[in-house]
Amino acid sequence: MTRPCRSVLYIPAANARAMDKARSLLADAIIFDLEDAVTPAEKPAARALLAQALRQDYGGRLRIVRINGLDSAWGADDARAFAAGADAVLVPKVSRPEDLDEVAALIPDTPLWAMLETAAGMLNAAQIAAHPRLQGMVMGTNDLAKELNARFRADRLPMMAGLGLCLLAARAHGRIIVDGVFNAFKDDEGLRAECEQGRDMGFDGKTLIHPAQLSIANAVFGPSEAEIDLARRQIAAHEQAAAQGLGVAVLDGRIVENLHVVTARATLAKAEAIAKMTA
User: E-strand spans in the chain?
Assistant: First the structure.
């Protein structure tokens, strides 16, 4: 899937002004949050407010609604309310594929995303990613750290096992997967380092808690000019080698095989999709 998900911004569904502003922000996707960002007293009103907001034009941005869990008083009504009004419904605290089954039964035609934020979710990531209705996965690193009783480390070493399991599961089943949030929204250097780590690992993008984080995430998770140039040259070199009856090309002292061409074409497709979104 080439639809960009470099920057996925959480917006509280109780905040009408923030939802309106999000229509002009350079976010690839928006998670309208009915769960953690909304107090119990505000939840019914937030649901109605969000339904009204989603009647507005959000351009090419992916509109995802994070509902409350079905074990709450609000989850089932949340799911039904946005079965048709959102691009996808994000299910919180998915620990087993059956958690998705329950939501899928309520909204049979809406793509589902899954929050991976529990220890059980990490261990069952492969089965969750295999769910036929699943489109994307979101890492909930704050809740995961709490479950693990982990200390904060800039290198996120306590998270690596869980992040890696979920990445493997997502790639095995062709799902979008986005990294967890970076809490210090005024720390640009720290955000960039964590985005670089996530991009190096293979994540498609990062969830964000503040609009000020958008430009860094977009830059890090989007192809750079150097990567685009290399992709074009790899494709050209491989095509030239193939015309000469060779299966392998050499570019800048490195071998270029068909697998590199596949990656290069994916890079160019992503760059093209980003250009269309920002045009």
Answer: 7-12, 29-33, 62-66, 88-91, 112-116, 134-139, 176-179, 205-208, 249-251, 254-256
Distance CA 228, CA 257 (A): 17
Percentage of the chain lying above the pLDDT 70 cut? 99
Q: Are the CB atoms for 106 and 79 separated by under 8 Å?
A: yes
Structure tokens that stand for 164 in this block:
């890696």
pTM: 0.94
Span between the terminal Cα atoms of the chain, in Å: 20
Cβ contacts of 4 within 8 Å, gap of 6 or more? 28, 205, 222, 270, 273, 274, 277
pLDDT at 2: 67
User: DSSP labels for 212-257?
Assistant: GGHHHHHHHHSPPHHHHHHHHHHHHHHHHHHHTT-S-EEETTEEE-
Measured CA to CA, the distance from residue 260 to residue 262 in angstroms comes to 5
Q: One-letter amino acid identity for 264?
A: A
Task: In whole angstroms, give the CA distance from residue 105 to residue 67.
Answer: 15
What phi and psi, each to the nearest 5 degrees, are found at residue 38?
-125, 130
- Taking CA atoms, 214 is separated from 54, 148, 151, 199, 209, in Å, by 21, 28, 26, 15, 9
**Separation CA 134–CA 10 (nearest Å):** 20
| Amino acid occupying residue 276 | K
- Are 34 and 46 in contact, with CB atoms under 8 Å apart? yes
User: pLDDT, tens digit, for every residue of 137-155?
Assistant: 999 999 999 999 999 999 9
Tell me the three-class secondary structure of 128-159, residue by residue. HHCCCCEEEEEECHHHHHHHHCCCCCCCCHHH
Q: What is the DSSP letter of 22?
A: G
